[in-house]
Structure formats: structure tokens, C-alpha cells
Amino acid sequence: MIRWVYLALAIWGAIHPMYYFISWFEANGYDLMAMVDAWHVSAAGSGLVWDLTIAAIALTVFIVSEVAMRRNWIALIAIPATFCIGVSCGLPLYLFLRARTVT
Fold first, then answer.
1. How is the chain split into domains, by residue range?
2. What is the pLDDT of residues 8-58, one digit of tens each?
3. Quick one: how far is CA 42 from the chain centroid?
4. What is the pTM for the complete model shown?
5. How far apart are the C-alpha atoms of 43 and 58, rounded to whole Å?
6. CA atoms within 13 A on the CB side of 35
7. Per-residue pLDDT tens digits for 57-86
8. Which of 19, 27, 77, 79 is the most buried (most CB within 10 A)?
């Protein structure tokens, strides 16, 4: 049961933030560096960017160490999900994949 909650959170964590990213790109053009500049407009924004960056790196280290022990290779897909979409997708996706039975 909890596995499906993780999957629902991963889907939500992919769709909800992406809505804002796409809205921003449509309003400001498809310039990734302009978006990064917008994230650093204030100290609060920069703090949030660094908070999420450090969380993404910590999650990546955890995933790699867990995959090395458990040999659950499919769980590595959570790493690009984390860096391409966000921690809000990557973490619950990893938990969903980790909760499955590995043979």
C-alpha cells in the first residue's frame, strides 16, 4: 500500500513543479540560464536553491550506496529524475522502486 503512495507522490512531484517551470518558460522564453538567474534574485531564493541542491546530492549518494548493496539497478532511474525534475519527484520515486521485491 505505501508503495503506491510513494508512486502517487512521485507523479505529483513531477507534474506540479513542472507546471510552474513550463509557465515560466512560456512567459520568459526557453532560456535555462535566465531561469537560474531568476532563482537567485533574492537571498531566500538562493537559499532554497542551495537547500534543494544539497538534498539532491545527498539523495544521489544514498541511492548509489543502496543500489550497490541491494543490486536494485532500476532504482538508479531516480537520479536523473532528481536532477531533471526535482527532489520532489526523485525521492518518492526512489522509495517506490526501493519498496519493490528484488529477486
1. 2-98
2. 999 999 999 999 999 999 999 999 899 999 999 999 999 999 999 999 999
3. 22
4. 0.86
5. 22
6. 14
7. 999 999 999 999 999 999 999 999 999 999
8. 79
